[in-house]
Amino acid sequence: MATAKSQDKYQEFLSGLKTEIQTEQMKFVLSANSQMLRLFWWIGHAILRYRKTEGWGTKIIQRLSVDLKKAFPDFKGNSERNLKYMRAFALAYPVGLDVKSGKISWYHHVTLLDKVKGEKLRRFYMEKVIENGWSRDTLVHQISSDLHLRQGKMQHNFAKTMPAGKSELVEVFFKDPYIFDFFELPQEAIERELEAALVNHIYRFLLEMGDGFAFLGRQVQLEKGGQNYYLDLLFYHTKLHCHVIMELKTGEFKPEYVGKMNFYLSAFDEDYRSVEDGPAIGIILCKSKNKVTAEYALRDVNNPIGIAVYNLTDAMPGNLEIPYITTDAN
């Protein structure tokens, strides 16, 4: 049974929360997201502080939810579940929120709290949300596909074909493997079928390619020595300021693919590279590869080329639209 002192402490705590909520509600109009996050962090921090000093049990959150709903019936976010997220939010940021954490929505923070363990990994995905403007659904997909394990893992020769120090800056824009889980293809599919499927799902394809990729065309023609050659897919990378040529292979990697790509890169740069552009980068995307074979194939090539594999897995949910953001995680 609650003591009079305990009741007084709770009422003091509840009164403080009400005052803070009323104050922050007036500021929401000016800076809705950052103020809301600050308020939610403050509530979570207050719950942690009072639980520690007063020895309150877990039922305090249930009681608090009821009282806050009575006091603020129109204020979203007072559910028991959301208050638990606020507590977890305060635990994840024990010294308060920084500038970057205020740039993503409460829904994104809830997703990170639910699905990502560890401050370093949460920071990685938070920065990706800020850089790329990911919706919550996209964030969930990138986490479930282990982006942090794939980014920067493509096999390449950038260190030998780029100025000193640039290789590390470039490789983070590429992955291995690439995951194409938004369409289905038969096992015996040929390159043109894979190419068509990717272009037909260009939004999700570019989402998987990552930050900076702009699609320019498919089967782009090159003419050299009186013969025509065709690039499977052509991109421009807006962060690297260079073109990216992609060749698709539905089988295992073969060394001769590198020689062909090297020819394409030299011919393309001669005809299309402007003074503002860096050298074009070639990506050979295969169904499988032998890493040792790929390493030897790249060894003496003078153009920047990467070799990666792709995976076709179960299709993603179709609702990759930005969700309507509310303040409640329910």
TrEMBL record:
This is DUF1016 domain-containing protein. Residues 17-150 form the YhcG N-terminal domain. It comes from Pedobacter steynii. PANTHER family: BLR8175 PROTEIN, UNCHARACTERIZED PROTEIN YHCG-RELATED. One of its GO terms (molecular function) is nucleic acid binding. It comes from the Bacteria. Pfam families: DUF1016_N, YhcG_C. Residues 173-320 form the YhcG PDDEXK nuclease domain.
